[in-house]
Amino acid sequence: MRQRLLLALLLLTLPVIPCFADTPDLKLDTALAGAERLDHQFIFCVEADRVSLPKKPDSDSGPIGQGDPVLPGASVDQAGIAYNRSERNFGTLRAVAPPTMVVLSTNPGDPNIYDGMPAGDSFVLLADSLTDSQWQAMTSAGGLGVGDLTDARQRDLFVAMLPYGKLKIAPWYANSLLYTEKDTRDLTSSIEETRIRILRKPMAMIMYDGKSGSQESEIPDADNTDRWKLVSPENWGGSKDTVFGVKVREELPNVPKVAEIDYNSAALNVPVDVTGLHTVADLVKAVALSTHIELYADARLEPAKLTILPPKQAAGAITTAGDLLQALAFCVTGTWRQVGPAFILTDDIAGIGTRAQQLFEFERHGDALRKDPLYDAGEDMLKRHSPNDIGWLGAPEAWTAKQMNGQYYAGKQASFIPSIDGPMGDLTPAQQSLVLRADKQFASDYSWQYKQEGNSPPGPKTRVELMAQIDVQLIVPTVIKPVETGVVVADSQLFQTRPDPHQYDNRGGAPQTYAQMADYLKQHPDILEQLRKRNPALVDRILNPPPVKPVDVRQSLATIAHRAVIVSAKSVAEAQAIVDQVKASGFNELWLMVFDKGKADVGASTLSKATALSGGKDVLDAAIEEGRKQGVDVYAGLNLLAWGSDPPKGTSDFTITGETSAQVWARENVYLANHDSNLEYEAGMIALDRPIDATSVYVNPFTPKVAEPLDDLIRNVAHHTGIKGMSGGRYRRQDTVPFIPSIPPAHSRWVSTKNSGLRSSGQRMSIPSTSSAPITIRDWPMSACRTSNTRTRS
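Request: output the structure for the sequence above.
Response:
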């Protein structure tokens, strides 16, 4: 007892040792500077000056745990634990680094199209899965009980409609106030007692005296009482790391990443003086000078501050370039990527652009595949049910019998509910009341825009459009009013047919010619009536177009200085005949394709076909000779990099994602078949009824097997006396329109819309082969034909 008292008194007489953690926001660099170091070990850290002592967790992790105070003289390991750091030795370096690293997937695999499916899509599949009795229950006022969903798939689809599978609701204030977390209610335990129902819900579009309109779908009820809605996914916070069932972003324990530089090579086994190095840029430069290796750091990493503390016994202590580079990569959770002869410190071997493109293609592929079951469901719904099955359930804003007269048929059994378009004075009192509530909501939600545009409440003559959408609601026992799910779909989403790929022209959008538009309007009477109300003159012009006077293309071409045609020829005789046709058609330049799919029709180069020469001449010789007589300049066209389906081994070029052009085109054809509206290229939309030629692989012009034969070919072409020049572009189908149908299709080429004087909107040009007949363009598009005297040569 006496000994313990003496010890206590002795402790009271000792000076107080300051506790680093008592200092506000003490940083890691200060803690490391005060830590006990080993005799021959450097301490290495990046941006230690920005790392604060974390909050201590509830559980105790030992003598010193995360968030515990660090006394002077504590070990580096204890400081690392307190600051929640990961530590690893690299030679004489003790690296103190972040505990975790973020990894993006570079091989996501096959998408699960049902995982993360939008709530609206899940509802479409759920509706199609219902039996007739279940459908009748869901369209009734009482709704369909979740307990009445008879199979696992139906229940899974219902749960998929709930954000994160939770029945969590929040107030939907009529005055646009935002709810807080304390306002929400988690009713997940009541899912089994919940019922789902669908009904008609009007949406209002108000046009304010010709100004920009407002479209309101979240219109307060007539009694102005508060409603409830599901908490939307964006209100749950956090990021979504899973896409189509695949974890595309993961936070993993920090470990050294695979690098493309050999840390153990002799070139990196040299000492580096770290004295006076303050930033990542300083260190990279010092190592580069010591090793004579080209090294760079990502520009975002260069200014990061270094903490390099010498060993306890600094005399004779050295660290090598390889250890420094490895420790640096570990501390920034990155790696060294090789680009040519240089090495770059960056996030990963695969660049962020490559990984972003891979994930973009993965999502795009999933979106394309997801359309198939939705089209199947929509077509099945057309056969089994009708939009007329979905009622208003007593809503006073229901369409009148007169307003329903505009309905049209989208399928054999399905009649879509029409929209109402006209002055507000033509609406029923209940509908007018709904429009005024929509106006009030718009004025509240967008008060700045409302005031700036000088809007005022709509009057009897204000143009209004009402649309009857399908609203999905949940009836929950403990909630007075039905809960809005946020799922509001149009008839065309629930009852839909697979798009006809032959319906549209090559722009993939609305019909382009009067004939196409007339057919479209006849199939859609409601659109015809709406268009007739807005622009009767246009409707009359579409349905009764004036006769089109034939256009003499030769006369139009005469005003253009350079009028070029791209054609290929199979023989010397054919090349001569082509020049005659080109001259007769009003053109003054022939761009003769002499190299395509890796084979040349000229000379005796290493790429020439065996049949290139005939009687000492090739097709280019014949065309030049005939062109000299006819006054037609001849250029050689070379499709330089598309070398057919089987290019020499090791010559294929690759995209940023490591695919050949043939693999890319094959995937694009999948998107094409699924009517992907995002499929766009330099020359516009590809015709939906024309799959892309996926047989020709692009080669890498920097490989000797490509560069040397091309040099030989170009020299050969250049030695043709009288040639005016060469075009080394790429010729893709969507860039062109057909020319000269009298030449067999197997080797006819196209008039380029990029390089020729005459441009069209993708329509075929019918050009007779005889010079006496007038040259006409039939079924010309509504958009005007443009001419230009510019050309592109390379």
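The chain has a mean pLDDT of 77.
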